[in-house]
Sequence to fold (142 residues):
Amino acid sequence: MKILELKTVEELLTGYPLLTHLYPNLTCLEYEQQLKEMLPHNYSMLAVYDKDELIGLSGVWIGHKLWCGKYMELDNVIVAEDFRSRGVGAMLFDYAKKLAKKKSCSSIGLDAFTYNHAGHKFFFKEDFVVKGYHFVHVLNQD
Fold:
């Protein structure tokens, strides 16, 4: 297995089929448009491959906040169902931790839906702790 950091729209579009497992209603065109908005704001993606098959992804944001300084945020972490519990997630997180240190980040954060219990278990195993709540106020509900 190998990990690559995807940084261009063309590279990131290769992750679309795997992302549809998280967002089944996301069209490829919508994804491409969002990428064009996200890339100028320190966004990239880590991609895990088994030979030529994409089996794991995580978006990566680098930002700054007053409470923690420079940090890395992992976003939309997903491992293909057939590859779960086979070390892919740990490999992805190990790579992210090394990358965060290389980029002089003070911490790594991520958001997880409250109902994602399997994800929570994995994040705790990777030494993440619950530091607070992420509150959302949706402005454009249909």
